Request: fold
Amino acid sequence: MKIALKFTPRHLAAGVAGVLVAAAVVAVPVMAATTSPTTSSAGPTTSASCLSARIAARVTPSVTTLQALGDCAVGQRLSTLGRLQATVDGTAALTADHHTALDTLIGDAKTGLATLKAKIDADTTVPSLHTDLRQVSAGFRVDRLVVRQVSLVRGDDLVAAQADRLTADAGQIQAAITAGQNAHKNEAAAATRLSAMQADIAAAQAQLSGQAGLVLALTPAQWNAGTAAPTLNADRSAIDAARGDLASAMRAENSAVAALK
Reply:
């Protein structure tokens, strides 16, 4: 008689979907971090939403136009941070420690930007405003660094959660193998596939080990110095490799289930 397992082919398909979802959430182009960023002397980089303010500040660099540009640039970054916070809060797979660390990262950036905005609004000279406008970008690096930190840490934890689910599956398969062996069935093929599955899971977990902590520790100063890119790229590579290991683990899982007598 076949051993009744607690998972089904539909369950296994859901596992595959989980890895694909984990792939999607880390699709932020970390490859851009391979450049060596430096602090621009021309002021912060702004999107099209601040284009009119940037043009005005360039054509007529006065206290009024520069303050308007600064307010727009700060507002844009605060809006991005708000969206990132919503993303963090909506990601159940984040560990408690990583959730707290991202909350702190985003909260500190919000506080720092609000303080800088107050300084910009109080500035009375063009030179001081030029200095503060450069700090909007160089001091926080929201789009270039914080967005990637959130994306990668989420990716780490989503893939790790999938590894945990597969580990639970492996436990069920082992129980089925043991029950079959106790019933004098030859479960050697299933046991071999289970061992391969467990090795793939372990490889995925090893790929991710410590990566999130390294990413969370990065600072705008490291981005400005060009030293953050290797860490960001290493984590993205680790996530990709772990996804590959888990895909292999799921293939082994399917084979182990099929081999059970």
User: Anything to note?
Assistant: The chain is about 75% helix and 0% strand. Residues 7-46 have pLDDT under 50 and may be disordered.
